[in-house]
Specification:
396 residues; alpha+beta; six-stranded mixed beta sheet; 16% helix; single chain
Length: 396
């Protein structure tokens, strides 16, 4: 059977992963995914991911697009990321081969703990709210969607198990309700310090209410990209918490319990970070040889990529070619203060094989950590690089 073949494949992968050297940096993403399957928990995690793939093949995703009407005319949060000390370019042209600034929904990364995304019926769904509240609530989805003014936010979300330069990071528009507004409506006891959030997949996590009470960007989200959350992305509800990795942000939310004491969430119990604060990272996506151009007798090749620092923003990106000096790149104006920043650098090149490295600083001027660290427990650090062989340009 296919399941038997999957188990055999997983077993062979687990025995051979780690013995394979990564010699081609342009193929690093496939190697990273194999390493990730081991790092999040061994064979059981591998089989879960395989099972998710097989179940998606045999069971088409449930269409949630008509569950409710999404209104995106509310306030847009985090739209002023600029600073007088940071130079952004509004219409900066990003080189070919760089990932899109907004990720298509079907391409948005996802890491699940179950073989199949939960299927939740919008009509019968109730969000259970209990614990340190005035009275227990069973809330209809339509009451949430229609009962509050929506807010919108461009958000980049990344996985704590994303290797430097990996693909477990995506950007889209989130629509939902500020969590502090909901806490007021639900009459949460001011002595409550945390909320335990549980999803239909069995995932749970404790959220610090100190953050939720002071940061308007903490959002109970019900839509991405102007449409109800897809089943695979957490329909009907998920939470967004700025500057945290995805492991702290449950999907398919069914229950919220407001409590005084903190507890270890699903991944924390498995020895991952308690805080899961986003590390500064930057990536060389493209060395666009097809866009080489000549200016004042010199040929230039555009280089492009992304830099990300959670809600801390990006103030500078620098590029180093081979053993040369670090040189500043141009930064495109970000979509919000919680998204990645697209960058471009035009290099006056010489033909041959070259290695391009990138590093970044956040808005406070803190540099990314250049020393290599694994994804577990606090997220990977290190310098991303890409090798490219550049040919002599054809004469015009």
């Amino acid at each position: 059977t296919l399941w038997g073949l999957a188990i055999g494949w997983a077993y062979s992968q687990l025995q051979t992963i780690g013995a394979r050297p990564i010699t081609d940096e342009n193929n690093i993403q496939s190697a990273e995914r194999r390493k990730f399957l081991v790092q999040i928990g061994g064979a059981s995690a591998t089989l879960t991911v395989i099972g998710a793939g097989l179940s998606a093949f045999f069971q088409p995703e449930v269409d949630t697009s008509d569950a409710f009407e999404v209104t995106t005319t509310g306030e847009t949060l985090g739209t002023q990321p600029t600073s007088s000390q940071i130079v952004y370019v509004e219409d900066l042209q990003i080189p070919a081969g760089t990932r899109p600034e907004i990720t298509p929904l079907d391409d948005h990364y996802r890491i699940d703990i179950s073989a199949r995304p939960p299927v939740i019926d919008a009509d019968t769904y109730r969000l259970k709210v209990h614990g340190m509240v005035e009275s227990e609530l069973q809330i209809k989805l339509t009451d949430l969607v229609e009962g509050y003014e929506p807010v919108n936010q461009y958000v980049t979300l990344s996985c704590i198990s994303n290797q430097v330069g990996g693909d477990l990071i995506s950007t889209t528009t989130w629509t939902g309700i500020p969590f502090r507004i909901l806490m007021e409506a639900w009459k949460v006891n001011p002595l409550a310090q945390y909320v335990k959030i549980t999803g239909a997949d069995g995932f749970d996590e404790w959220i610090d209410l100190g953050v939720a009470r002071t940061d308007e960007r903490v959002m109970l989200a019900y839509a991405w990209d102007g449409q109800p959350l897809k089943q695979k992305h957490g329909f009907p509800l998920r939470i967004y918490i700025p500057d945290r990795y995805g492991m702290k942000q449950p999907k398919w939310i069914t229950e919220m319990e407001f409590v005084r004491e903190w507890g270890e969430g699903y991944w924390v119990r498995r020895s991952w970070s308690e805080q899961a604060l986003v590390q500064i990272t930057s990536v060389v996506d493209s060395v666009a040889q097809e866009e080489i151009y000549q200016q004042d007798g010199t040929y230039y090749v555009p280089i492009g990529g992304i830099a990300y620092s959670g809600a801390k923003g990006i103030s500078a990106v620098e590029i180093r070619v081979d053993d040369g000096d670090w040189m500043p790149a141009q930064l495109k104006t970000p979509l919000s203060d919680t998204t990645w920043v697209m960058w471009r650098f035009d290099w006056a090149f010489t033909p041959g094989q070259h290695t391009f490295r990138v590093r970044a600083k956040d808005r406070a001027g803190r540099p990314q950590v250049e020393s290599n660290a694994p994804v577990r427990p606090d997220g990977a650090t290190g310098i991303h690089s890409r090798r490219a062989t550049l040919d002599e340009p054809a004469e015009a």
